[in-house]
Design goal:
The chain has about 450 residues and is an alpha/beta fold. The chain is about 35% helix and about 20% strand. Helix 2 crosses helix 4 (about 60-70), helix 6 (about 85-95) runs antiparallel to helix 9 and helix 14 crosses helix 15 (about 285-295).
Length: about 450
């Protein structure tokens, strides 16, 4: 079989259109008004609320919940959006179970936190339903800032700069803005094209222009941007993917999980999207779980997550692990891939058992083979296309203060920069804070 052809076991139409529609409905349906009122009543409205400390964007959670309790969801939405302009998406995709809800006093006392995430969605959806922006632009400053990358960090930075009176041009390499919110979020978490609806709503602030097909290092350069704009904010994400160091990793049926997730997100008809019968996902983070669950929802009969360390070391939260298990995904821990077997196309994957000795992971020499006509690699992403002249810290752009890089006039945030934890909500906070620092620098 020639490289690039579809492996025999990977086919479309494993499920009917009706089954697929049912499988990809909203993971957490929105709260009805009476449900929101009941959920809000459970909040203790703590004075020194630990949930606020746990929120990367510092949303005043007790305040917005009290506003919902008082029958003012639009005011609650305003409270959220002032801190997190992508609060609608974050309400859908944030791992609240390890952030605000884990810190909730109700969780500590009863094991059942206030449903902060769903309440946040209730409030932000109410604001967005009006179609109007709750913010007004300041008087024009005459300054124009370039933002490279239309992901969460770039959008948050652009919006805050626009509110402050600056003009912003976002340079985006892909056909659509949104970054991982558009291309990388599980389809069952963000339904009804919400990512694009949120971008369209955000742009109503005015003063923001998006130029798609604009690629740093190809169609644009950092030197050129510095020559034409008053400041530059880089939010280029992590476009590279780590290699799978296993024999046969180039066989048909082996691909990057992020590409698979993107295909699902962009598919016009899921019935035409091929998936394997036996799928193995390599990795232990959120991307691995999303790819595994999506495979099951598309009709894969057997799906396995293979992770090289112990279960408690997985990047995916226990909630996400349980979500995978509830969809019939098997999780194998302490195994690492050594070979993909098959005649041209993947048929089996050979996994070696691992052990940790004094903190160092080693293979035991014992192996097991698992049927796999499709292998999805979710083993981490790497920085690509970082401009020369910028200091790096490991695999990311080194930043200090509120996203300042080693180059004057250039800021960075989101997954491409140091300091974050690769979450949408963290990227939003970094973009917002960089915008404030850029404004301060331009105003001094």
């Amino acid at each position: 079989m020639a490289q690039g052809q579809m492996a025999p076991g990977i086919v479309s139409g494993r499920l009917s259109s009706d089954e697929l529609t049912s499988n990809f409905t909203d993971l957490h349906p929105p709260l009805a008004p009476h449900e929101a009122a009941v959920a809000a009543d459970r909040c203790y409205f703590c004075y020194d609320a630990p949930c606020v400390t746990a929120c990367p964007t510092d949303i005043d959670i007790p305040l917005f919940i009290r506003q919902i309790q008082a029958g003012q969801p639009r005011a609650a939405g305003q409270t959220i959006l002032e801190q997190n302009i992508l609060g609608g998406m974050c309400a859908r995709v944030c791992p609240t179970e390890t952030l605000c809800e884990e810190a909730c006093v109700r969780e500590t006392a009863e094991g059942k936190p206030v449903e902060i995430g769903r309440l946040q969605r209730f409030a932000t959806d109410d604001v967005m339903a009006t179609g109007a922006q709750p913010f007004e632009r300041a008087a024009p400053t005459g300054r124009t800032i370039a933002v490279v990358g239309a992901g969460p960090a770039g959008l948050a930075c652009a919006h805050r700069l626009a509110v402050l009176g600056h003009d912003v041009v976002i340079h985006e390499s892909r056909p659509k803005p949104g970054g991982l919110n558009e291309y990388g979020i599980a389809a069952y978490k963000s339904t009804n094209d919400f990512a694009q609806a949120e971008v369209d709503w955000l742009l109503k602030i005015g003063g923001i222009t998006i130029e798609t097909g604009s690629v740093l290092g190809e169609t644009i350069s950092l030197d050129g941007l510095l020559g034409n704009y008053d400041a530059v904010f880089l939010s280029i994400g992590l476009a590279g993917v780590n290699a799978l160091r296993a024999q046969g990793a180039d066989k048909d049926g082996v691909r990057h999980a992020v590409d698979f997730i993107s295909d699902v997100r962009q598919a016009d008809d899921l019935a035409h999207l091929p998936v394997g019968r036996n799928v193995v996902v390599i990795g232990g983070g959120m991307t691995a779980v999303d790819a595994a669950v999506k495979s099951r929802l598309l009709g894969a009969e057997h799906v396995t997550i293979a992770y090289r360390r112990a279960r408690d070391a997985m990047g995916a939260s226990r909630y996400e692990q349980d979500l995978a298990a509830s969809h019939g995904v098997r999780i194998m821990c302490n195994v690492q891939p050594v070979a993909v077997h098959g005649n041209g196309a993947a048929a089996e994957i050979e996994l070696e058992y691992t052990t940790s000795q004094e903190g160092r992971l080693t293979g035991t020499g014992d192996t097991v083979r698992v049927p796999a006509d499709q292998v999805l690699k979710a083993i981490g992403q790497t920085l690509e296309g970082a401009p020369e002249g910028l200091s790096l810290d490991g695999n990311k752009i080194a930043v200090s203060d509120a996203g300042r890089t080693s180059m004057d006039g250039v800021w960075a945030g989101g997954d491409c920069a140091t300091g974050g934890d690769d979450l949408t909500v963290t990227a939003v906070a970094e973009g917002r804070d960089a915008a404030m620092d850029i404004h301060a620098a331009l105003s001094s």
